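pasting for ref
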Amino acid sequence: MQENKKQKTAWLADGLCLVVAAIWGSGFIASQMAIDAHMSAALIMAVRFLIAAVVMLAACIPKLRGFRHQEIVVGARAGVFLFAGFYTQIVGQQNTTVSHCAFLTATNVVMVPFIVWLFSRRRPPTSTFLLAGTTLLGIGVLSITPGSFSFSFNFGDAMTLLCALMFALHITSLGSIGKEADVMRVNLVQLTVAALISLAVFLLTDLDSVSVVNWHTGLPAVLFLGLFSTCLCYFLQTLAQKHTTPSKAGVLLSTEGLFGSLLSVMFGYEKMTVQLVIGGMIILCSIIVMELFTGKKPE
């Protein structure tokens, strides 16, 4: 009886991981709607993270006393990378397709072992190098211009790869959290730092852009990003990973790029092409194999 209950809980946790991946995938559509509403990257970031930080602050009121120095340092560093990751992602999406942005963002999983190697001198297994090569092959296939054999790797694609690097650094930076640290307080710090940087960048560079924004379509999009893609997803992910294995959660969450690409085609933002299917599947399969068979990664 107890075993059946554990199995059902594990299935529920896996289902929650797929829900999170689907919401994150739909976040690319919400970002595109905000972009089409003439919202700048800094404005999208400012609204998104201010919402997330306020909601997180309300959830953390009972925990506001007793902040540890490590929680502030790690949270602040993670907040900088979180801002950089999402900012470069939006700039990248402004200059490439939704599918390219979704699949290229997912390559951060492949980058993490190499960043760990750089800072800890722990060399990744040989299979990691092979999977990095297949990921590059997938990126190359995505870059082939439909109807020809010419390559079109543009500024948006480059910014999205930079975004993946920032997310990989974000994941790695959170690996230094000690067991005594409170995860909710760390999350509050990182969201607050990301919100403050976003607000500062917006006020300094994009304040004039507010006058051209179509708030009718843009505001619901960024509210979705703040409430669902950020607040709800991080909560569901944390809840789910208490009842499933890290490798299984990683595989399920990596389908974010697949959901983003499928939704992009369904909403008419782009057409389904052979290059998109083959390149996307190569990247997705590389990530899944990386999660399952390359050994233990940092917590």
